[in-house]
Each structure stands twice: as structure tokens, then as C-alpha cells.
Specification:
Blueprint: E1 4-13, E2 16-26, E3 31-35, H1 42-49, E4 57-62, E5 68-71, H2 83-88, H3 92-109, H4 111-114, H5 117-136, H6 142-152, H7 169-183, E6 187-191, H8 199-210, E7 215-219, H9 223-229, E8 232-237, E9 240-245, H10 248-259
Parallel strand pairs: 3-7, 3-8, 5-6, 6-7
Antiparallel strand pairs: 1-2, 1-4, 8-9
Length: 260
């Protein structure tokens, strides 16, 4: 069953038709690349799929209870936060849960509460339930996850306390990518994710995405990156998409066969 599909999407800006009766579908473990010449409408398609803009006609279906994340080339960040603060916002529910666990530990140890068996039992039950949930949701590993992603994308320990408002445009783009990777939506739309990454960071990102548990849809002009990461290519041409199975190299071969 498709995790995302769109049927007969169309979008125009003024008299310029960008997308015309476009249809495609993605499965849960797809790693799809979206290619096309500049101005073909790739980013416009992503903006429609993410709900950032509406289509003029057609339908978009996202499987129930599935989340979608969009790393655009203009993703906003809270400029008043530090790098580390912004990343930890992803895990605010876990941070709140951890705070409640610490509060419960104090309450459970209180002599006054121990002398109230029913109430004490209630506290113990809540404590046990939260500990299980905290563990299942990677409560003991999220801080390491944040550090690993930041290091992987080229940030150093010394960068963590820097305010976002002093970062360069390239650093902000890398930080926005880090945040989306930590959010881990079921469907992740990435628009030129290798921009502003050095070779080490690109290699790290390739390995991260190969193990990604959700569905990936990636706009990229980096054919080597697409070769490593993707298992399907959509070419946006003449306002529609043509689908090719396999990575970028497979796409090149199949495209030549179709032209023959």
C-alpha cells in the first residue's frame, strides 16, 4: 500500500503551467530521487506534497497517522536559540517526561507519601509506566543522537553553544537538515540536501539515509549521491513525471533504452 500518492496534480502561477496532471506513488521503504532541469517544478511539487502550497486540481493522499517532513532550501530556524537548544526542541516531550520522572523519584522517597499506601502505589505505577515509555522512545539515547547528527554534518563541540543568528547561510542549511533528520518523519522530503556539505558530511549523510526507516523523496543534482541512496528515480519533464526503477545509473541506462 502506498504511503503517499498523488493523482492528476496541476499547478500554475499566472499563465505559466508548472505541473499538469501529474501522478505518482511512493511505498514505505522507497528511496526516490526527483530530477529535472532547473525550473521544471521540482520544489513546487514538494511544496504541494508537504502542504506548504495548494494544488490547483488533483488529490494528494498520505497514509493515515503518517508524518511528513520537508527540508526546503529556505527552512526557518529560531535565530534566538543556540544550535544545541534548537536540536533539543525535537525531544521536548522526552525532556518533559524525564523531568516528571525525577519529580516522581523524590515524591516516592518521601516519608509522608510512603505513609499513604494507595497514593504511593499510584505514584509507583506512574513512575513504572513513564520509565517504560521513556526507554521505548530512546530517552536514554536522544542526547547521543543529537551529538552524532551534529558531528556528522560538520559541527564541532565548540559550535553547540553558538546562537543561530550568527551562523552563515550554509551553516543554517546544515542545521535545518540536522533537525529534520532528528525528527525522523515517516516521509522525508529533501530538497538539495548535499548543498553546503563537505565530502565527509556527504558520506555520513549517505550512510544515515541508507538506514533510514521511513520513505525518502530527494531532489538532488548530485548524481553520485543519488546513485548511493536511491532505488527509484522520477524525472519531471513536460510538467509530468516519468518513473524509473533503480538508482541514477539505472535511470540513465533505461532512459537511453526508452529513447531507442
Amino acid at each position: 500500500m502506498a504511503i503517499l500518492s498523488c493523482n492528476n496534480l496541476s499547478k500554475s502561477f499566472g499563465i505559466n503551467t508548472i505541473i499538469d496532471n501529474l501522478s505518482l506513488s511512493l511505498q514505505e521503504r522507497d528511496r526516490a530521487g526527483l530530477i529535472g532541469v532547473n525550473g521544471a517544478g521540482k520544489s513546487t511539487l514538494f511544496r504541494m506534497l508537504s502542504g506548504e502550497i495548494t494544488c490547483d486540481s488533483g488529490e494528494i493522499y498520505i497514509q493515515k497517522d503518517k508524518t511528513i517532513g520537508y527540508l526546503s532550501q529556505n527552512m526557518s530556524l529560531d535565530s534566538s536559540s543556540t544550535i544545541l537548544e534548537e536540536m533539543l526542541k525535537v525531544y521536548q516531550p522526552l525532556i518533559d517526561m524525564e523531568k516528571r520522572i525525577r519529580e516522581l523519584e523524590v515524591m516516592i522517597a518521601s516519608k509522608e507519601n510512603i505513609e499513604k499506601p494507595e497514593y504511593h502505589k499510584k505514584l509507583m505505577n506512574e513512575y513504572s509506566r513513564l520509565l517504560d515509555e521513556f526507554s521505548i522512545k530512546n530517552g536514554y539515547g536522544y542526547k547521543s543522537m543529537v551529538r552524532g547528527v551534529l558531528f556528522g554534518l560538520g559541527f564541532s563541540e565548540e559550535d553547540f553553544d553558538k546562537k543561530i543568528n550568527i551562523l552563515s547561510g550554509g551553516q543554517k542549511t546544515r542545521l535545518a537538515l540536522a533537525k529534520q533528520l532528528l525528527i525522523m518523519p515517516d516521509i522525508l522530503l529533501l530538497d538539495e540536501p548535499t548543498n553546503h556539505l563537505d565530502l565527509d558530511a556527504v558520506e555520513w549523510l549517505e550512510n544515515f539515509l541508507k538506514d533510514y526507516k521511513g520513505c525518502l523523496f530527494i531532489i538532488s543534482h548530485d548524481r553520485f549521491f543519488l546513485d548511493v541512496v536511491t532505488n527509484k528515480i522520477f524525472e519531471l519533464i513536460n510538467h509530468k513525471v516519468e518513473e524509473y526503477e533503480g538508482n541514477y545509473s539505472a535511470y540513465i541506462k533505461e532512459r537511453e533504452l526508452r529513447k531507442a
